[in-house]
Amino acid sequence: MKDAEIEAARFLLARLGISPEQLLDEPVRNRPMPTFSQYISSVSDAVPSGSRHAYEPYWRRVEEVWGERGIDEPTPLEVEQLAEQVKLHVVVRKNSRGGRSAAEHLIAALRCLYRHAVADELISEADNPAARVAKPRRLASTRRALPDARLVELNEVAGSTGNDPELDSLLLRLHTETACRRGGALALRPCDLDSEQCLVRLREKGETVRWQPVSGTLMKHLVIHAEERGSRPGEQLLRYRNGRPITARRYDHLWARLGKHLPWVATQQISTHWLRHTTLTWVERSFGYAVARAFAGHNGKSDAGSTSTYIRADLQEVALALSVLTGEQHPLAMSAEVHRWGSPLLRNV
């Protein structure tokens, strides 16, 4: 009897032109399928500001090409074709790597878009075209740790040229001591400074927040900078002399100027992120992987596998590494421990 009922159901579905798979995979939709122009606007309002900033150029490109199409129309092949178009028309710079990064970011932007479409039950996961297109394989980074002598050169030129050497020297010191990203420095506020314990609160990508030890020297200059340039407690700390908050463009101008005075900076396309590599390499070599990971602010969810659960370093260990790095005693590091270690990375800076 049961077989007969199943056969009758199959017959009815066939008459209706519906396959059993469609009943399982097809989401129930009570509203019209939005176009890319409509849906990108909605998703842009829903994602964090960091994601919006990263994806917006690629969403604009998608709008230019597919703006009036429904988001369920493109196929995986069309996604691949669009990625290749973006790759071919990318702006060629000195550090260009053939447009691989642009193609990767386009696919990531589409995956973000389609994740929301699946969650909104506009399409099923099986119908997500971006998920079935592989991202270009990432090439190994050309960044590396800078030798001590090069680090000294950077600081000497930054502190003796330009229209605001005090600001530029502070930027280099901040990034070298904390290994923070550019966004972390730009998000720093006076209320993020704990002068008593020499800690700064860093808010970086992925909405991560952590307290990072700094030297007494850096803390003193951060406080003075905030007071002299009119930074209020809840506002951006780093500012120009006229009180206007700096933006990422200050970094661009800084490295362009350093490149004019130091040809190796321009040739190798040195940037702020090289300072992060420099500091974290030194910390890893001197104190091991666990301390370097904590110093970097990595949460361990995607690196080193399950072993990272057992090798987490605490704030005191990071403070000890910072003390040796700068050659200054830190309130959270034991003095006896500091003197066991060798020469500081910043001894000449």
From TrEMBL:
Keywords: DNA recombination, DNA-binding. Residues 141-323 form the Tyr recombinase domain. GO terms for biological process: DNA integration; DNA recombination. Signal peptide: none annotated. The keyword DNA-binding applies. GO terms for molecular function: DNA binding. Transmembrane segments: none annotated. The keyword DNA-binding applies. Gene3D superfamilies: 1.10.150.130, Intergrase catalytic core. Pfam families: Phage_integrase. This is Site-specific integrase. It comes from Solihabitans fulvus.
